[in-house]
Amino acid sequence: MSQIAQEAARRRTFAIISHPDAGKTTLTEKLLLFSGAILSAGTVKGKKSGKFATSDWMEIEKQRGISVASSVMQFDYRQHVVNLLDTPGHEDFSEDTYRVLTAVDSALMVIDAAKGVEAQTIKLLNVCRLRDTPIVTFMNKYDREVRDSLELLDEVENILHIRCAPITWPIGMGKNFKGVYHILNDEIYLFEAGGEKLPHQFDVIKGINNARLDELFPIEIQQLREEIELVQAASNEFDLNAFLRGELTPVFFGSAINNFGIQEILNALIDWAPAPLPRETLERVVEPTENKFSGFVFKIQANMDAKHRDRIAFLRVCSGEFTRGMKIKHLRLNRDIAASSVVTFMSHTRELVEEAFAGDIIGIPNHGNIQIGDSFTEGERLTFTGIPFFAPELFRAVRIKNPLKMKQLQKGLQQLGEEGAVQVFRPHNGGDLILGAVGVLQFEVVTARLANEYGVDAVFESVSIWSARWVSCPDRKKLAEFEKANILNLATDAGGNLTYLAPNRVNLSLTEERWPDICFHETRELT
Ligand code: GDP
Question: Which parts of the chain are coiled coil (predicted)?
Answer without folding.
Answer: none
